[in-house]
Amino acid sequence: MIYTMNVNMNNKIPKVEEPDVTYQNFIQNLATYHFQVKAIIQDILDCRDSMEVLNHLNDKGRAKLSLLREELENLDSYATDMGDQKYFLEVASQRHLLAGLLKEFKEANISSMFAIEKAQREDLLKTGDVEESMFRNRIKKINRDGLLKMSTGATERLLSISRQLAATTQRSQDTLDSLVSSSSTVHGTQAELQNTGSTITQSSKLLKKYGRREFTDKVIMFFAFLFFLAVCLYIVQKRLF
After folding, report:
1. How far apart are alpha carbons 100 and 97 in whole angstroms?
2. What is the C-alpha to C-alpha distance for residues 143 and 121, in angstroms, rounded to an integer?
3. Is the pLDDT of residue 174 over 90?
4. Partner of 108 for a Cys bridge, out of 44, 87, 124, 190, CB 3.0 to 4.6 A?
5. 128 and 183 in contact (C-beta within 8 Å)?
6. What is the dihedral of CA 199, 200, 204, 205, to 10 degrees?
7. Prediction pTM value
8. 48: Cβ–Cβ under 8 A, 6 or more apart, which residues?
């Protein structure tokens, strides 16, 4: 009787499932890449140095995203081999997190790009105002030959500012092209996550807004060219009369 009770008790002892080490490694690697990309996104949001620094951060971010995407594909293959429903649910969850990271990465780049352009434009305009004020004050104290030399220097500075504006616009265009190329990655996940369509619509609006800003840059360059012509006419007038 006692032997029978012991046997029954032994049969009721639950079997401890061994942990899936491979699955846990996938989850740990994905979490590591996720936090690394988050850190890079924060660095991009804080970036106010230059477009070169922003491009460097973009390269680092794209490299980490590539590693994360590759690890996610490995987890998907493992889930298919194992045939366990919980693995498929984890893959879907990780794809959702990846789509969110891509959205944050793109929005952070656009925000920092506009902030850097605005700061550079303000610095250039402030520099132009200071130089123009100094130029007007010195005109009253120098003779005709000195005025000619000063006008030449001011013309060269204006040309330099115009070239810098053109270079800034070109760098912005290159960065924008890079961001547009990365949007193909978002399209790849759109088939599984339909709610990312709003992100593409918002990006389109931002691109149109950037086009209007590019038009503003061209207007500024046009007025700079008019000022250059005015200086040349002034010099010619002084030399003739």
Report:
1. 5
2. 34
3. no
4. 44
5. no
6. -20
7. 0.44
8. 112, 115, 116, 119
Nearest to 131 by CA among 110, 150, 103, 108: 150
Q: What is the pLDDT of residues 93-131, one digit of tens each?
A: 989 988 999 999 999 899 888 888 888 888 888 776 666
Q: Which two tokens stand for residue 125?
A: 């305009």
Q: What is the DSSP string of 169-222?
A: HHHHHHHHHHHHHHHHHHHHHHTT-GGGHHHHHHHHHHHHHHHHHHHHHHHHHH
| Distance between CA atoms of residues 72 and 68, nearest Å | 6
The two three-digit tokens of residue 172, written as one number: 């912005």
Q: How far apart are CA 241 and CA 231, in angstroms?
A: 15
Picking from 99, 98, 103, 108, the residue whose alpha carbon sits closest to that of residue 34 is: 98
Residue 35's nearest CA partner among 65, 73, 58 is: 65
Place of tokens 């389109």: 204
d(CA 105, CA 115): 16
And the tokens for 235? 């010099």
Could you give phi then psi for residue 186, rounded to 5 degrees? -65, -40
